[in-house]
Q: What sequence folds into this?
């Protein structure tokens, strides 16, 4: 009986966590995927599924595999799920750019779409590093741990990715920001 109550309490706790974090996870996934809303939703679902499977690790007092920061752990799981997806051969398939209808754009949507398009042209690991460092505001060390790379490699990758973004965006970004 006590086990069933504990399991129910853990489930309620996880549902509250998922409701609170899914929006942030989706936004991060959206930028990681270069604006692919469907893939972003899939990555968030995969992340939450893995978090659910590991949720019991939150309450292990002295266990080496204990999760101390569930939000940070979820972000790490999301980035790793994204990088795993990019290694699959089928991840390079893209739908055509020609869409039958045009969506109405909000005032900053042109800037957002330009940035997402530029991010989508970066290699997956570069994109992950840029999103983690500048969108998620993670430190170099946190980013290195999440992408399983050294701090020096993250700094180099960041520098090169930003240089590529400057070339890709050029004067177009200044025009959009000035509006």
A:
């Amino acid at each position: 009986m006590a086990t069933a109550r504990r399991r129910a309490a853990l489930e309620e706790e996880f549902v509250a966590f998922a409701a609170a974090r899914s929006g942030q996870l989706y936004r991060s996934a959206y930028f990681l995927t270069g604006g692919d809303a469907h893939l972003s939703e899939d990555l968030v679902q995969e992340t939450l599924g893995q978090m659910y499977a590991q949720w019991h690790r939150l309450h292990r007092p002295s266990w080496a595999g204990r999760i101390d920061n569930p939000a940070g752990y979820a972000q790490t799981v999301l980035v790793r799920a994204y990088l795993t997806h990019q290694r699959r051969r089928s991840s390079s398939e893209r739908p055509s750019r020609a869409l039958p209808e045009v969506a109405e754009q909000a005032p900053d949507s042109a800037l957002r779409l330009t940035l997402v398009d530029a991010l989508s042209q970066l290699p997956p690991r570069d994109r992950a590093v840029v999103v983690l460092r500048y969108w998620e505001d993670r430190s170099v060390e946190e980013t290195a741990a999440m992408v399983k790379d050294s701090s020096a490699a993250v700094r180099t990758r960041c520098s090169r990715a930003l240089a590529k973004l400057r070339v890709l965006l050029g004067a177009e970004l200044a025009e959009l920001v000035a509006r």
